[in-house]
Specification:
heterodimer, A: about 300 residues, mainly alpha, 15 helices, flat, B: D-Maltodextrin-Binding Protein, domain 2, D-Maltodextrin-Binding Protein, domain 2
Amino acid sequence: MSAPQLRIRRRIPRTPYLLLIPAVAILLIGLGYPIVWQVITSLQEYGLQQQFGKPAPFVGLQNYIDLASTSQLWIVVGRSILFCLVTAVATLAVGTLLALLMNAVTKGPRIVLQIALLLAWSMPVVAAMTVWIWLFDRRRGAINFLLDMIPGVDMNRFDWLESPATFFVVASVIVIWMSVPFVAFSTYAGLTQISDEVMEAAQLDGANGWQRFWGIILPMIRPVIGIVLLLQVIWDLRVFTQITMLQDAGSKSSEFDLLGTYIYKLGTKSQDFGMASSVSILVLAITIALSWFYIRSLLKEDES
Amino acid sequence: MKRKFGVVAVASATAAALLLAGCSSSEPAAEAGGTDITLWLNGGDTPDALRDYLKTEFADATGGTLTIEEQSWTDALAKLTTALPDAENTPDVVEIGNTWSPTFTNAGAFTDLTDMYDDLGGENLLASFVEAGEVDGANYALPYYFGSRYMFYRKDMWEKAGLEVPTTLAEFNESAAALTTDDQSGFYIGGEDWRNGVSWIFANGGDLAAKDGDEWKSTLSDPKTIEGLEQLQALYESSSKAPVTESDSTPWVNINDNESTGEPEAATIIAPGWAHWSIGDLAEDPDDPTATVATWNDDTFGVFTLPGVDGGVAPVFAGGSNIAISAASKNQDASKELMTIIFSPEYQQLLGENGLGPANLEYASSLGDDQFATALTESAEGSKLTPAAPGWAAVEGSGLLEEFFGKVNGGGDVADLAAEYDGKIDELING
């Protein structure tokens, strides 16, 4: 009798591990291979000659040392982090406000709002960018036309893409527009989980709107907000298409670069793949560093 | 049971989607006997008539299908870098910007065509372009067409201001400033437009880089280059309303009457010869009510070549392309067949008739003898190529020249900027 019992106790559940295999395999092939290639390339001198088959000499950490000593890199890193934080926080704020609005209005307006958000979300990036670039066009853009109608404001032929400051305002507005629907829907889903009883009790106790939002709603949807902010920070740090298309419409000068376009210029356009790889590894490190805090707090919440 | 049905439905839908996706990406079946090849052309510079000619001739000669894929000039460099080394995805024959030819030729991207060189035109081919595609006496990339830039001007505005076609560069600079008003540019040039702006450097005897022994060095700080840059800076400030961030764009929209004001934005522009098809009196396109067509009007518009410092013709940037066979291509023989068609007298003749300078100068007369042909030939004679340095494509790709010209035209200190960008360009120019 004791033998079978022992066997039961010792049995290791295999199924979960078997089920994990496809996901892990896809990750390894899809992410592992490029990362390994990138790490190797970042330690090599790899230019156009190597691209056409010449052997690539290993140079150790030389690419990283060269990079660390160029001020250009640190300027771009600083600019990218600032851009990504401002944009991510603004996206979150606008998205949360829209979610609260969806929660407050009746069914009709809510559906209109949701359809509008879905349309913005499903719009292909290149199509949306083309329209945005037209909107901000120096000569015929609707934005300048409307602003110019305000008495005392002279925006005729104002070139939004000429100076880095306004360039990044435009870029930020576009990125926010593109990512707000995701934040709004996620937060709205979170809001629907708050029970009416709690809100009613708070109201009876005399809590005003702001107190209810700050003291009850926000703590209750914090996990959603946390993960959404994390995703936004990661997305906004590696933003590429929007910036590169705005550069096509404006200037390709380095003052208008974020990390994505900086790497592209270094690698594909100036054909220094070794250096471009080491910047990419750096971006990976920055992403992990920025999100580390959030991932840890999320894990802690999971455990408790 | 219901759920199971759902799973099966989803699974079969997924499978179908994958299969269909597989079908749609498969290549069209090859015609019996012929080899199918792909030709990459950049931008819309090669007109449709010429493309059709190539396809028909290629089919007649080999029985295969020629697929022409158009790449935009902005992305071409990046696409060539990634596609050319890859035997599975490389185009067989590629048009390559003449200034990029040395870089790719040195990297070993192209097939050696030395044994065909004499059959394709030999000595008659445009020498400076042949040189750009040559390594150690072997020919890899050959000229495809040339098209130097010249000036288009509003005769009506110049005459009204009592100005004649200028005969020296200084006279041009003065006239442009005189024609500038609050709303109109005397001469419209983007601040970052180095391909046109470089003419002022060339005209003053300067250059972008020079070979010093075995090494290339950027020569922006050369006194002659500085002289040209200072003239350009002054001209941009006095005469151009274009944004400082604008680079090589579509300047002809500025010389036509603006639809909303009825006035042109500029009295003068510099543009490639084929821009004349887009310049003129605007009228609604009979085939498409949303578009307009331009009809050249000799009373309103005229052309001249940029004059040199002491008269004559200023050396302008020699625009144009080379053409080569990808070394990684599996269809070398069929590709060589296409090269034979491209360098045939018929095709060279067609290039000229369509306003593109033919690679084989024996057929230069096909350009005709109208004012456009005269201006093109005149400006091409003195035109200059960018340095044939191994790293030149990287210099262009990095955007440093746009950045430098933008800062100069933005009013920066020319000598300081020149020293700064000499340093940056030197890091890339030797490959």
